[in-house]
Description:
It contains 14 helices and 15 strands. The chain is α/β, with parallel strands linked by helices. The strands form two sheets. It has a nine-stranded mixed β-sheet.
Amino acid sequence: MRTSFDRRDFLKSSAVVASAVALSAVNYKRVMGANERLRVASIGTGGKGKGDLTSVAKSPSVDVVALCNVDSSEQHLGWAVEAYPQATTYADWRVLLDESKSFDACIVSTPDFMHAPVALPAMSLGKHVYCQKPLAHTVFETRQMQLAAKRNNVVTQMGNQIHSHEAYRTATAWVHQGKIGKAKAVHAWQSGNPKWRVAVQRPDGADPIQSDLRWDLWQGVAAERPFKVNIYHPFNWRHWRDYGTGQLGDFGCHILDPVFTALKLGSPTSVWAIAPAIHPEIWTDSSTVRYVFPKTEMTEGATIPVTWYDSVGVRPPRDLFSDIPDSYPLPSAGSVIVGTEGSIVIPHVAAPKLFPEEKFSSTELPKEIGLDHYVQWADAARGVGKATDDFSYAGPLTEAVLLGTIAIRKPGETLKWDAEKLLITNSEQAQSMISKPYRSGWEPKWIDF
Ligand SMILES: NC(=O)c1ccc[n+]([C@@H]2O[C@H](COP(=O)([O-])OP(=O)(O)OC[C@H]3O[C@@H](n4cnc5c(N)ncnc54)[C@H](O)[C@@H]3O)[C@@H](O)[C@H]2O)c1
């Protein structure tokens, strides 16, 4: 077996140096001044996209000029047409990008598998991008997102909005202030029951396609499949490897985010997982994923282990936390950073707590204020301030999360990761999962590196 792979071979063998989805527009990037208004397009206006759009539109300096959705029903596009009647509407994001002179920035709130195929050409046209989490569907796409943001010098923000929440900001500040000393280990978990587990295997047959849905456009870069009601669109696409990234992909970019910020993590050197074997087209219903990251200024020892757990009702074993009493109920989702001088519990969107309790109970601990994740991005795109969750930060976080989803598909194997070369150096099969095949005619145009 080969133990290392050449990156250029990989680029070629994955057929990733491919022609672009037809786009005739040239780069219409405007250099903006602080007094100028930002013209925003929303791609994927339903589901989370509704919140993304209304939150960005709260900025008094934003004009919503374009709305794009493959589903024109009230819940998906209709509500937005009523809210922003001046905006031009589109079913096909490629047509929107072809008319790229009309907008400066876009919000990408499509299902995971369509983030990079939409955001990459948008960035190459000079558009600032707010993109939902996880940044992309594969590790390779995630790296491309970082390269495109840098090359085109556009303002980016990933949609893990809790990054700006006072709870996560306070937790990371306390760690940076040295409250728990140096970190020795991290345990993070999600115990919720996903509503999107809709089938145990691919259902047979086809249902009539609802009249307001452009199913062919919804499928985008993915393999063509028959339409089935409530199996894929909306929301339940998360269950399927073709479209989503499972529970780790869905929540890892939230729950591991304060861990990344607090400990200044970059790329892991290895990842290992246990997960039950289930149907190969769907994501597992439980996993434990163990990453090893190299030492940082915030950690103790040569490496730091970060362990992720997901399954219904799961918590990390209590005996891992000697300074957290058993009487303290661990939250249903969150993380614990175990340090040399204490531990911090960071619940998924609630106030953090430091242990041992007696050490921290006598002092008033400073709290950080929350920031507006959405308006921050719109302002930064106008040249005012900075986006704090741009793709240079969100990229390595997403790469680590998605590496975990590869380990879940190769349970029991320790996968060695060379981040610089984008190579899993000890498994050709795992390396093939860094990217994926694309529907003919829909291949994104990649940046060679
Ligand atoms: N940050 C968060 O807290 C949070 C919460 C929920 C979802 N999300 C993320 O938001 C994204 C969407 O998730 P969701 O739950 O809203 O999914 P969803 O299926 O409910 O909504 C997706 C929307 O995009 C539209 N759409 C699909 N493909 C499109 C395309 N090619 N062009 C234009 N429109 C398209 C759909 O019609 C729908 O309106 C995912 O990446 C998900 O991970 C983030």
